[in-house]
């Protein structure tokens, strides 16, 4: 039997367009998060700072992201989803230019906090908006656009970094048109940021926000645009109004419960978000070029390897998009957890064979190739599971009355966990790299048990059914 969208493909096309436009925030999220990977060495040499200072500059953006995620839910409920996207786009643009032209290491840190705030906002706004405009039958695949955009942003940032370094003669501190290569890397984000602003000015507001703010006529028009006039629009509008009629803009007090001060569903979102980071995925995207340089690969080639990992990330994301609405959210998460635990354990074994000679670290055969393959298998399993599904679930799993606020708290927790992993990795790697990777493998294993016990399936359910 044909689905309504098979009979009216023009409406699905419109939904895909506005979903993709909203997901540009995810692209910026990925780009701005990972572009520092190629610039780390250049910043360290330019400002002549040590590993503690450079670790602080890399990680401080994540604290800004936690603040942006925490504030983003409230701003989305007060200003609207699209207006908040416009603010995030402006913050991305300004911070990119500021990072491009810093005069001191602390100045660069301030601009990175601003960029992080915009990243945090985007991490909340995209999933919330997409979940609210997508029909239930397509919501998993459309919700996957956020993660697809993130991994595309990561890949493009690595490719742009590689091209800039090649144009500059192979070193990030070489000059290219009056600025050093690493400065161009950090400034290039302004281009997609301006594109995000243009799209955010032209996509429709979420129908659920419109109902929440008393604009039911406009909400009906948007529902007709995204679901088609073949749907009983009056019934759909009444359904949303029934859920929201007696409710107000949610705040932190709406998330309170008996379970350690928060509702159980909010805790589930927080822990789910934390596990996405505790497996160590962003060690690959923030420090991989430094890691591969440390085992004897030159600077330019290390950036190319980082780009290849990003391509694997994209392939895994497409696999998740194909499967998330077919086999469900929970099975994909559990498959990913198992694959990540095995690959991380293998990487830990490989790094245990590292040798130091004359201050240079190297991996012998077969551990060197095994480490590279294991790292990329880890990226693949993360991408086809936790990378996509966590964002889909965060957009779906919370009741309407607390969705934006709860999503903000959960995403904020994700950024705090991201910060903890990022700031601790340099010191942990210097202390014991194999044990560090074994720790990430342990968290991947525990995440399997958490999903099996605490996460409910949301495939095919209307947002109004979440409770």
Report on this model:
The chain is an all-alpha fold. It contains 20 helices and 4 strands. Strand 3 and strand 4 (360-362) form a beta hairpin. Helix 8 (139-167) crosses helix 19.
Helix-strand makeup class: mainly alpha
Series of secondary-structure elements, N-terminal to C-terminal: HHHHHHHHEEHHHHHHHHHEEHHH
Shape: globular
Total helix count?
Answer: 20
β content, as a range? under 5%
- Can you name the CATH architecture? Up-down Bundle
Reading side by side through the largest sheet, how are the strands ordered?
Answer: 1-2
Q: Which topology does CATH recognise?
A: Growth Hormone, Chain: A
Nearest-integer average pLDDT: 85
| E-strand count | 4
User: At the first level of CATH, what is the class?
Assistant: Mainly Alpha
Question: Can you tell me the CATH superfamily?
Answer: MFS general substrate transporter like domains
Structural domain count:
1
Contiguous low-pLDDT stretches (5 residues minimum) are: 1-9
CA-based gyration radius: 22 Å
Q: What kind of sheet is the major sheet?
A: 2 strands, antiparallel
